[in-house]
Automatic annotation (TrEMBL):
This is Penicillin-binding protein. Pfam families: Beta-lactamase (PF00144). SUPFAM superfamilies: beta-lactamase/transpeptidase-like. It comes from the Bacteria. InterPro entries: Beta-lactam-related, Beta-lactam/transpept-like, Diverse_Enzym_Activities. It comes from Rossellomorea marisflavi. Residues 11-311 form the Beta-lactamase-related domain.
């Protein structure tokens, strides 16, 4: 796995990378390479280096949504209009299930939201469902996503390398565009959890996956109710969706059968789930093999081109093949 991760870093011109794999709750592989950026004097990537995990953050938002379903604040097939004060016609016919699984059919352009397809009849990846649900659950609980997770999970487990960052720190890995451009810091003034400024170390992202794999339990402590984890990682996609399209839980990609447009490889067994970000961070959980695998990069559009799905599937296939 290490040569493959390093080869992808070279091909995509990522300045830094990390690989962290757990098996049966124990670390079996931990590797760090490269630097926080291409700038002179940049720090080497190390165990405390924190990468901006981009869209992999949706698994954190998804868990709070799963809590809301568990607590009865949301009902998965309830229309979105039953929960929002402003009755935007673009949400007509859209349910919580549709928002969770990228099947809501709402597009977002320069002039605002628009209907792209009938809810539940197709799949299109964008941030509309994520943003809508994020603000909805914050309103319901009366707290931010970051404070909710901090109090219920991060503080209890003494995680200090996970958080939505507003200020620079020597632990934070920069985001690379082109090598000759100034790297981006990935920070945002807001730390409520709705923005793309979640920075996590490779090991704490793996522990996040392990928390899900162990159904919310750490040692003898039930940190997250088991049913909340089940709600986050079970398929909620409408059954009528075309076979080639991905299946999702609470934003996680969930494997049932191999699907052409899924980001999970065909060799990965059913019941596994994965989520990734545009800069290359990926977390893969394979319950059948008791495996959690995390890779980290810091290059935007880390998998470019028309054949991007092949690259996304290759990582999970390699992890699965190594287990058989």
């Amino acid at each position: 796995m290490i040569p493959w991760v390093e080869d992808i870093a070279r091909k995509n011109d990522s300045s830094g990378h990390a690989l962290y794999i757990m098996k049966d709750g124990k670390t079996v592989l931990e590797h760090y390479g490269g630097y926080h950026s291409f700038e002179p004097g940049a720090q080497k990537v190390n165990p405390t280096s924190r990468f901006n995990i981009a869209s992999a953050r949706k698994s954190y938002i998804g868990l709070m949504v799963a809590y809301a379903l568990y607590d009865g604040l949301l009902k998965i097939d309830q229309p979105v209009h039953d929960y929002v004060k402003v009755k935007d016609p673009v949400f007509r016919g859209v349910s919580i299930r549709h928002l969770l699984t990228h099947t809501h059919g709402i597009g977002e352009g320069d002039s605002g939201l628009y209907t792209e397809f009938t809810p539940g009849e197709n799949w299109s990846y964008n941030n509309v469902g994520v943003d809508t649900l994020a603000h909805l659950v914050m309103e319901m609980y009366g707290v931010t996503i970051s404070s909710f997770l901090q109090g219920r999970i991060f503080n209890q487990l003494e995680w200090v390398e996970t958080g939505w960052m507003t200020e620079t720190s020597h632990e934070l890995v920069k985001i690379i565009g082109n090598r000759d451009e100034k790297p981006m810091d990935g920070l945002h003034p807001d730390s409520d959890g709705t923005r793309k400024n979640l920075f996590v170390s490779a090991r704490e992202l793996a522990w996040w996956g392990q928390l899900h794999l162990d159904k919310g339990k750490v040692g003898n402590r039930q940190i997250v109710p088991e049913e909340v984890v089940n709600l986050a990682t079970s398929i909620h996609t409408p059954e009528s969706l075309l076979d080639e399209l991905p299946r999702n839980g609470a934003f996680w990609y969930v494997q049932d059968i191999p699907r052409m447009k899924s980001e999970i490889g065909d060799a990965v067994p059913a019941g596994s789930y994965q989520i990734l970000g545009v800069t290359g961070p990926t977390i893969l959980v394979i319950p059948k093999y008791q495996i959690v695998a995390v890779k980290m990069y810091n290059k935007r559009y880390n998998y470019g081109g028309a054949d991007y799905l092949r690259y996304l599937k290759e990582f999970s296939n390699r992890v699965a093949d190594a287990c058989t």
